[in-house]
Amino acid sequence: MERPSKLIVLDIDNTVFNWVEYYVACMCAMMDKVSLLTGIDRAILFEESRPIFEREGSIEYPFLIQQLPSVIAYYEGDITRMLSEAVEEGRKAFNTTAKDALKPYDDVIATLERVKEKYPAVPIIALTDAPRYVAMWKLNKLGLLRFFSAVYGLPDPNIPIDTATQEVKVDKEILVKHLQKFNFGFEGRIRILPDDYEKPGTKGLKTVLMDFDMEPHLGDVLWVGDNLRKDVGLGKRLGVHTVWAGYGTVIRPESKDLLLQFSPMGNVAKNVALDPKNSESPQPDFVLESFADIMQAIEEVLYRA
Known about the structure:
The protein is α/β, with parallel strands linked by helices.
C-alpha cells in the first residue's frame, strides 16, 4: 500500500454519534422486555450485567441476556425456550430502539462527504475499543462505513456455551455471522487488535501508524477523539496532531445515572469522558464544538502545521 500524504484517524463512540444516549436507551428497552417476560426486576438484570461486562471485556457484549444468572435460573436449563423468548425478544427490543437512538450527530454525514470531496486521497480510519463486529455493526447502521478506509477494533465477542450440555447459546443465523467474521460488505482493511491494545495505551494507534507507514510522518496525522485523558493523552504521547471532540462529553444527568446502574466503573471511564477538564488535562491542538469543525481542524492543523 502506498503511503498517503495525510491520515485522519477517528474514534467512534461519542465522536461520530452519541454512544451514551444510544446504548442507555437500547439497554433499557432490552431489559424492560426481558423483565416483562420473566418477572425479574430490571434493577436485578442491570446489576447482574456488571460482572459479565467485566469478564467479557466490553460493555457492549452482545450475548448478555443468555449469560444473566437470574434468566438462566428462570428457564431451568431450557436453552431453546430461553433463546426464542427472552433472548430473541430482548434483541428485537434493542434493535427497534436502535433505529431511533443510533444515529450520527447531525452534521457528521454532510461533513464526511465534504472531507472526502475536498481530500479524496486522505484515508479516514476508525479506531475503537469496541469489539470489531460490534463496531462495524454500529457504523453500518449509522450509514458511515462507506467513509472509512479501515476499521480497527478489539477481538470479537466470545460465543456463550452452556457448561453442562456444551450447547451453544446463540441463534444459528447470528452464530454464523460471528464465526464467518461478517464484514457488512466493507471493502476496506479490517484489523482485529489484541485486548491489551485498548486505549489509553498507545499500541492501537501505533498499529494504524505502522500499517500506513506514517510513523516517520507524525505531523501528517490527525487523531480525533472525545476523551481528553484517553484519546488526546495517547495522541500527545505518540506525537500526532490531536483534536478533541468536546461536544461528545455533553451527557444528560439521567442518562449518566442509568449508565452507572449496569456498567462497571472501569467501563464508564473508558467510554465517557467524565473527568472534568482542568489544568492537568492533556491539551489538544484543536477543539471541536461540533463535528463540522473538523474541516477547520484539517485545514489549520493538518495542512498548515
